[in-house]
Structures are given as structure tokens and as C-alpha cells.
Amino acid sequence: xxxxxxxxxxxxxxxxxxxxxxxxxxxxxxxxxxxxxxxxxxxxxxxxxxxxxxxxxxxxxxxxxxxxxxxxxxxxxxxxxxxxxxxxxxxxxxxxxxxxxxxxxxxxxxxxxxxxxxxxxxxxxxxxxxxxxxxxxxxxxxxxxxxxxxxxxxxxxxxxxxxxxxxxxxxxxxxxxxxxxxxxxxxxxxxxxxxxxxxxxxxxxxxxxxxxxxxxxxxxxxxxxxxxxxxxxxxxxxxxxxxxxxxxxxxxxxxxxxxxxxxxxxxxxxxxxxxxxxxxxxxxxxxxxxxxxxxxxxxxxxxxxxxxxxxxxxxxxxxxxxxxxxxxxxxxxxxxxxxxxxxxxxxxxxxxxxxxxxxxxxxxxxxxxxxxxxxxxxxxxxxxxxxxxxxxxxxxxxxxxxxxxxxxxxxxxxxxxxxxxxxxxxxxxxxxxxxxxxxxxxxxxxxxxxxxxxxxxxxxxxxxxxxxxxxxxxxxxxxxxxxxxxxxxxxxxxxxxxxxxxxxxxxxxxxxxxxxxxxxxxxxxxxxxxxxxxxxxxxxxxxxxxxxxxxxxxxxxxxxxxxxxxxxxxxxxxxxxxxxxxxxxxxxxxxxxxxxxxxxxxxxxxxxxxxxxxxxxxxxxxxxxxxxxxxxxxxxxxxxxxxxxxxxxxxxxxxxxxxxxxxxxxxxxxxxxxxxxxxxxxxxxxxxxxxxxxxxxxxxxxxxxxxxxxxxxxxxxxxxxxxxxxxxxxxxxxxxxxxxxxxxxxxxxxxxxxxxxxxx
Length: 760
What we know:
Elements (H helix, E strand, L loop, with lengths): L11 H10 L1 H12 L14 H5 L14 E4 L5 E5 L14 H11 L11 H14 L9 H14 L3 H8 L3 H18 L1 H11 L9 H9 L8 H10 L12 H17 L5 H8 L22 H13 L7 H10 L3 E4 L3 H14 L7 E7 L6 E6 L33 H10 L7 E2 L4 E3 L4 E3 L2 E3 L5 E3 L9 E2 H7 L2 H11 L2 H9 L25 H12 L3 E3 L4 E5 L5 E2 L6 E3 L3 H17 L13 E6 L5 E7 L4 E7 L8 E5 L2 E5 L6 H13 L15 H12 L11 H4 L1 H5 L44
Parallel strand pairs: 1-3
Antiparallel strand pairs: 1-2, 3-13, 4-5, 4-18, 6-11, 7-10, 8-9, 12-15, 13-14, 16-17, 17-18, 19-20
């Protein structure tokens, strides 16, 4: 006995035989319907068993593209992204009214015929012959579904879409053979379910669930009769019957569907009359697609997640493979974003730097020990409008950022850590004059660097050593750090930077020159935050990650890359750096970044000509980096208003520091303060002064700590020994000497051959 289909009627074999048996008729009919100008000649060659059998019978149905939902770490929505806005639902979650409406208007004999409706074909052929054109089609729902599969497979390629929809007899025959296969394999109910999930309903909505939410802000299972009829009417021409733009046409079409439902006895005439008398009541939900819709200013983090997906081999062997998975969508991506940290970061940015300012700021926060990116924001919003940008100022060039920004003295702790790893003691002292030439030669990974007469100076003439490492770090003394890197060589510094994930934003290697001690190599805030997290994690670096988990459209968990942690330095070295950088915040250039009673550490940085200013800091449980500057490397931050406040000069401690402080304070609110593991660093000079002070009368200050010599003004933001005030940052003590480097680090002009980049 021939096998019957679940939907009734002939088997696929019988259907094909009947089709071939009436090939002349079919040729005339199909040609007349699809291409009336070709008459009955179109199928002469195709109307044979051999020609029909040559068409492949295995319809490959690609997974339907759906929306992807991006969530924060707590499961809260960040954004919805999609190539096609679609949510696939089972037939049981689609209103019975919708099921009946689409069948009534598109293929009322759907449950009675097979893949092709011969009665419909003859009726359509007769109507078209009378009209002399194509006034009526004869495609069944199954054939329409097959055509939609072709369109879905074509994706966003306009040429492939044109091929999938071209009005040719060859396509019709191919469509018909696949329709026979589909009828035989799926059955009527599954075909109807697939059809309702694949069809385009206008307004960027693919599938009935997305359409129901778009036009009525409700699920497809809750559609009323008149609502279902309106959506069913859209399928024929989504633009012509669009209720948002032409309510009258949409109403006429809806009423046609309702009456058709009554004619085929799906509803009573009384129900039809009542529904037709109801005004269209839309509750439109506008399309919300892409990172531009992200909440809490997380558009750049959303875009970073997308970049991570498209570049990580864990999600596909090739870029094309990964893009295909992303575009097909249907993913639920839970990220590492901490909503509390993100909200605090964005609020701090908004309060300190306006989007209309001449300069911008970017901030990234990561979690030491896990590499999780907790927050990412910037002052210029995500978008293409005025004072907006799609460039993510927090990340490297290959992840959607720029070429990076010189970190200035925030690089010095890496030099200090490299020196400690080489056996240098934190009590190491150098003369550290106000001005000196770089020692030469200096050993690098590639051999000695030699260049005579390259000068470097400190911020103030009062900054004259000798200094030990702790005081030199707190005051950001350039001449100390020049001598330090000269003693240990450049190679240990670049090697340690690599172990800490600190690399140039443009992907190029760090230059083998001693000026790197002053932060001449362009880097991104995320890179610096992740690098400093190594100190917070007692010497173990963890690669940054943004994705916690991904659930595929089939409900199964996908494999996602985990953070890779590796030891970059000894715990003792990290503890020593923590001790040094606590001093920066407590009584050094970073006092304005202090978190009150919560232990914190960090370093300020300001580059030549004040083209960029930084504060990079951390607690044991969060590390963050703040950059402020001109993304184009042109605007000097002198005599400038930022966030409504005027600055004669911008320092790392004066603008980035408070941004970091406020962002971290909110991010850490409610979390237990954790202490650092610190060490005692002897200071013979200070201890001698303390002993002398104990022998003096109270207030005598016989120890010699006067503001003019020790630059306490630079430490506490008050006046220094020259009577000049500064903002508590290192100023060019960070290396900010206009005579020492390029104007913007990008113009390639180097006053000292073999010595690239700016100081600081």
C-alpha cells in the first residue's frame, strides 16, 4: 500500500506521477500563472520524467535567523540584536484565530490537497486567461513556505534574494518538487508552524511572534480575531497593507480576510460582522535592534561582545562561519557586565565630562582574578549623530577602538615591577636631578640602545633627589625612572608587560627604547585596567572576558572561552607594587582618586602637551582605568573647560582621578573593603628625620621637610616651594615636558632619532 501523508491526499510518488502525467496541462497552467508572456511553451523541456528527476529532492532548510538577546551578569537585558527580528514559537503558542486566518486567505484548501492544488491551478489559469495577466496565483502554503526557505537561505545578499524570488518556470518547478518532499516529510501542522515562523510581516518583523509584538505588543498566542486577520492580510503585501502607514488599506484587507474566514466556515457571519466593525487598535513597539539600544550606556560593551564573538575561533573556525552563527541569531548571551558598576561608571562619566566637550573620556573596570569586564563606558554616546561615535575608545584597534593613547606615567609601575623581578630592592636610590640626559647605552632585547644627549626633566625644579623607589613613584619622578630602566634594561620591561597583557592598541610590539618608562607606547583603557588587575591579584594576570555563557536557539549551552590566568610576577613583587601605589593615592599625585576608608592603589599619568591624562587604579576586587583626551590626538588640555569646570592645565590626578573615584565608589558600594598584602619599605632618610623630629620641640619641624624642597605642594594639591599651585597630579613630572617629545605622538616627527614617541 502506498504510504499516506499525515495531511491526507496522495503520496509524494503519486503526486509527482500525476504531475508528470499532465505535464502539458501543468506547463500551460504554470507558465500562464507565472509568466503569461511565455504561454504554453515553457515546460516542454521540463515536462519529462528525466527533467523532473534531475532536480535535487533534498530541501536544505537553514536555521531561521532570530533575535539575539544580550544580558548582564544578573540576567537583566542589555540589548537585542538581530539580522532578522524573529522569535520562533511552536504552533501551540500561536492563536487559533491566526492559524485559521492565514489558511483562509492564503490557501483555504490547505488541508485537502497535497503540495500542489490542481483545482486552484485550473481556477487561477481560467481567471488569468480571462484577465490577460496574472490576477490570481495558485501557490499553496507549502510552495510559499519553500520559496521563503530559498529567501532565508539567501540571507542579506541581494543577488541571491533576486534568484530566490525570480518569476521563472525553472524556479516554479524546483519549488514544486521541494514542496512535494516537504509535504511528505513534515505534514500539514508542521508546515503551517514553519510558514508562520518564516514569513515576513513588514516593519522588520519576521515570523508571527515578532509581528504580534511589533503591531500589538503581545504574544502571538493572545491575538484576537480582528488582530490575527490584520496580520494574515499583511503577508500578500506588507508595504501596501501596512497599518502603521495606511490604516484604510489595512482595514480593507483585514476585513477581506475576516469575510474569507466566514466564507470557509472558520467563524460565523455574526462573528465576522462584529470583527469587521472593530477599529484597528495598534499598540506598536518600534523596532529595537542593535547596540544603539543598549541600556545604561552599555552600547560599547555590547559592541565589544559582538567583536569578541566574531573574532574568537571558539565560535567558528572562520570569520564567515562565526558571522553566519551571529546573523542566524537566536542566542541568549549572558555577559560579565555588572549593572551596578556600569551604572556607576556611566554616571561618573556624565558628571565629569560632557558629550559636547572638546575632549572625551573612556573607562573600563575589570575583576582581578577572573578577567571579567564589569563596566565599559565613555562620554561620547554610541551612535552616528552629533557628538556620538561608533568607535570604542576603551579597546584595541582590532576590537573596534582606535590606535590607543600614550599612558604616560601609568606605565612606570610596570618598570618598577620588572626591576623588582630583576632583584632591585625597593630601597634603590638614584640621584634623580631635576634634569639629565638618558644614560647610554641601554640594553634591549635586540642589543644596546645608544643615543647621546637625549634630555629628560622632572616637573618642577624643586624635584631633586636622591629619591628611593617609594618616594619617586609617589611623586612620579622622571629622572629616577630613566635611571631605573637604564640599569635593568628594556627587555625585562617589555617581557613583563607582555605577561601582564599590556600591549600596544594597534597590535604592534612595544618599541625597544628606554623612553617606554615614561609611557610613550599607545594603549587602551581596557588593556591598562587588565594589566593593573595583575597587581591586585598578587601577580597573576587573567585575560579579559566579556561572555559568561551562551544558549543557542536549540536551548543548548555553547562552549565559551574562559579567562586564562598565568603568573606574571612573584607575589612579593606584586605586594611591593601595591605598597608603592597605595602611597600614590594616600600622599602622592593620586590623592584626588582616594576612596576614603577603603584600601586603594593607583597611578596618575599625563602625556606631553597634555594630549592625554590617565588614572589607573584598583582595589583587591576591582581594577579600573580612566583616560581623558582628544581621540584625534590634537587638542591640548590647556585653558580648557571639561564637564563645566575650567582647567588651566589638566593632570591625571585632577580630571581622570575623580572620575575613577566616583565610578569605583558606586561600583564597590555594599561590598566589603578588602586589604592589600603590603610590605614594609625602609626609608632611612625619613626614619632619621622622624628621630630628629622626636628630639625637637613640637612644631619645630627640624627634620627639614619643607614644602619648597620636598614638593609637598605637588603631593597634596597645595602650593609648592615656589609659591605655585598644582592639581595634585604629577603634571609633567609624569614626563610632561614639551621639549622632550613629539607634539602628538602621531606625526612621526622625532627630535631625537631612535627615540620615538612622547615622554610621560
